[in-house]
Amino acid sequence: MATTKKRSECPISCSLDVWGDKWSLLIIRDLMLSKQCTYGDFLKSEEKIATNILAARLLMLEENSIISKLNHPDSKAKVLYKLTQKGIDLLPLMIEINLWADKYSTLPAERKAIVEEIKKDKEGFIKTQTKELKKVIL
Amino acid sequence: MATTKKRSECPISCSLDVWGDKWSLLIIRDLMLSKQCTYGDFLKSEEKIATNILAARLLMLEENSIISKLNHPDSKAKVLYKLTQKGIDLLPLMIEINLWADKYSTLPAERKAIVEEIKKDKEGFIKTQTKELKKVIL
DNA sequence: TATTTGTACTTGCAAAACGCAAGCAAATTT
DNA sequence: AAATTTGCTTGCGTTTTGCAAGTACAAATA
């Protein structure tokens, strides 16, 4: 089991107990950018997560209801992962990370474009993106 | 040296390279709640960080300009840690974590009170708190 | 002034987590 | 039927963590 003991009742601490490692938020990032990913899609990401670590994180995130599996429409061999509502609700947090990083470092062009869009209308971006991500749930 | 190699240019990944572990955001939380902390103050926190881990994280956060040291007014033996502007700018992120945790779990009463205040006027809360935290810089 | 206490760390070591490579079973393609 | 793809698991060496003890210096106490 990937279920860990809580260190305290603090909301920050409890949140970190779930996704506070070097990889979980990158998995969630991939799902926010791609809506749905296969196991292989995650492995293709730039940061090159190890396959055993990926399996462990996916299990952890699923146990904590942040992601869920669904059948791939084309093939039984493939598994699709998507964000649950709880996972989608991490979008504002993800946005703030991007804004912070934008303030203190140089972003790659394609990410910079997204951040500029967010800066223009943060609430609008969240609403639109949330709607897009929710479509996948159905 | 605590300086690690970047895994990619992704803003999420780069941010996680700096504070994406189980302890850094708890240190930052303590500084946001208390404005200034000594080494001993951090050790007193509920989560009971190990002293060697604390020293390593404080160094990492200082190297990345998120916190800085200052002389304690009363004693040469004591060291005060505070957030830099870069650290203070993590406040919106910290707030979103609290809001997310509030949505999916039960917060301790004193933290719940803060979250309710945030919900009433998020921007106002950020402005006020930022101003409070900046005072310590001077 | 000598001694004890407080504060900020460092060190040693066992345990856990990580990272890489290889392996494996079921599904799919050729 | 054989080869390939896909989603994992397993082994194993390395790194990080966590706990306990130790150290150096400042400050308080006797």
UniProtKB/TrEMBL annotation, chains A, B:
Keywords: DNA-binding, Transcription, Transcription regulation. Residues 10-109 form the HTH hxlR-type domain. The keyword Hydrolase does not apply. Gene3D superfamilies: Winged helix-like DNA-binding domain superfamily/Winged helix DNA-binding domain. The keyword Calcium does not apply. Pfam families: HxlR. It comes from the Bacteria. One of its GO terms (molecular function) is DNA binding. This is Transcriptional regulator. It comes from Flavobacterium glycines.
